[in-house]
Amino acid sequence: MIIALVNSKGGVGKSTLAGNLAAWLHEQGHSVILADCDAQKSSSQWVQEAKPDIQVFHFANSDEILDSLPVLRDKADYIVADGPGSQTETSRALLMWADLAVIPCKASMFEARALAMNTAFVRQAQAIRNGQPDAIAVLTMVGRDYRLTKDMRDAAASLELTVAEAPIGLRQAYADAPGQATFVWKMGSSARDAAEEIDALFRELLPEACTENVVPMRRVRGRKKRANG
Ligand SMILES: Nc1ncnc2c1ncn2[C@@H]1O[C@H](COP(=O)(O)OP(=O)(O)OP(=O)(O)O)[C@@H](O)[C@H]1O
Ligand SMILES: [Mg+2]
């Protein structure tokens, strides 16, 4: 299965989600390839360092994606493709082969127009490919302003685009994990909320991929009950 993280708007969390998703799938016992289609190579450097078992490929332009992505399809259970922030042709090429397009978008006033443009790309691909790829938007870097979140959900609804129930919050742990060559569910109690929400998101996106509890159970606080007598 090819999962493409696409949004031609920069800095919305594509690479953050791509790296975490590739590692999460690997920890579920699947073979995973990370296809880094961004010249900055941020997700591939992070994953190579933090989880060297995941194979990494780089694609520099849309021709390479159109030619090579289908060849990778048979080489792993999941191909996670991290799209670039600006080159729209590269994002469109990814949509030609993806089975699932995940569109991360910040809950912010400036994102609605970008969401409309990206949804248009998805619709074009779906028209060419008989309805493929499935597409879902994910709200990222969600702060405490509930109204903005609602505005983004309304904007997506008006585009008839599904939005994942599980949002990703604005949390320092996501920004810190690559620098520490790790993933949020390995960062202990300070990153607990991030670990739980990203696990909930990936379970929602790919229920068939879940085999393991990647996030350790939350320890229940309180005194142990004494046995009677
Ligand atoms: N949920 C989050 N909370 C806090 N910081 C985040 C979150 N997600 C991403 N970031 C940080 O925001 C910045 C942009 O994220 P990221 O690189 O994942 O976006 P991108 O969409 O891949 O950007 P580009 O389009 O440039 O490739 C990074 O510094 C990252 O660490
Ligand atoms: Mg990126």
Describe this structure as you would to a colleague.
- The protein is α/β, with parallel strands linked by helices and 229 residues long.
- It has eight helices and six strands, in the order βαβαβαβαβαβααα.
- α2 (42-50) links the parallel β2 (32-36) and β3.
- α1 (14-27) packs parallel to α2, α3 (62-72) runs parallel beside α4 and α4 crosses α5.
- The model has no long low-confidence stretch (mean pLDDT 92).
- The structure holds adenosine-5'-triphosphate and magnesium ion (MG).
- Adenosine-5'-triphosphate (ATP) binds next to α1 and α7.
- Its EC number is 3.6.-.-.
* Backbone structural class: alpha/beta
CATH superfamily: P-loop containing nucleotide triphosphate hydrolases
Count of domains: 1
Radius of gyration: 18 Å
Overall pLDDT score: 92
CATH architectural label? 3-Layer(aba) Sandwich
The CATH topology is Rossmann fold
Inertia-based shape: globular
Q: What small ligands are held by the chains? A: adenosine-5'-triphosphate, magnesium ion
EC number: 3.6.-.-
Domain CobQ/CobB/MinD/ParA nucleotide binding: 3-178
Pfam family, one: CbiA
Protein name: MinD/ParA/CobQ/CobA-like protein
